Request: fold
Amino acid sequence: PGVTKVSFSENGLFSGTESRSTMAVEGFTARSPEDSLNRSDKVGPDYFSTLGIPLLAGREIGPQDSPVGPNVAVINEAFARFYFQGKDPLGRHISDVDGKNPMTIVGVVGTAKENTLREPAARRLYTPYLQSRTDDDPPGELHYEVRTLASAGMVETEIRQTLRKVDGSLRDPAIQWSQTLIEEDLEQERLI
Reply:
């Protein structure tokens, strides 16, 4: 009760983990190795609407972006500005620097700070988590993002009880609220 949206990601918000990808972008010639290096995350359906990150063009990652669907990616506005310089990125292609794993850009979202508030928001590439999984590559740790209208305490209790009902052998989840994560990221500044 009270939960309005749920999604998941490989890295999670302000979790201290961050992925980087070296990419080749259609129509762009890198001048330095840093030009090809971007932050990245593998995310679940409705990730952006769950977090409140605005969709600027195209669509967000959805349930159709499965292992049997075409490889797609969503980029943030900083990525689009750097690589496409005002041109429409939708339908353009990106891949690993060796040309493997080509993906079609299907969406552009606002640039958001997801790992630390201290640094400028980075160019970021989002790919469907479900497209990166195979039967011989089981999921590792996942971070779930939950948007709720209910009180934090009530939702936390409901999540824990529901997980126990579904599978009592699951370990108790570590639940952290976005406001707490932001406060922890700014702890040094608050102390000063």
Remarks:
- The first strand starts at residue 3 and ends at 9.
- The CA atoms of residues 22 and 32 lie 12 Å apart.
- The longest helix spans residues 152-166.
